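Quick start: read one record
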Amino acid sequence: MSEATERLVGITGHQTLTPSTRKLISQAFKEDFIHEHSSVAITSLAAGTDQICAQAVLDLGGRFIVVLPARHYVKSFDAAADLENFYRASARVDSAEQLTLCTMHIPRGKKSR
């Protein structure tokens, strides 16, 4: 299947999860992702759901793209294990992009489109 027809799957979720919830997320994501052999996951590799799903993608031989929400994003990780998982997964990423801060001024009385 060509790159133009690949299905992109965005990942986001909670960071603090119970062990049983972590297992459920991994199983459910793998079941869905395995049916989409051409899927590419998009994630920030945040602790919790993002890292669980990224690991599931790697387990299935899939690909993912990392979008970093801030320049010093790695400083946001509280747990050493989460930071280690971030670095391990990011070493196997297809591509990475850093978001650029963008602000938009909307004049009073005008609605955004």
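The chain has a mean pLDDT of 82.
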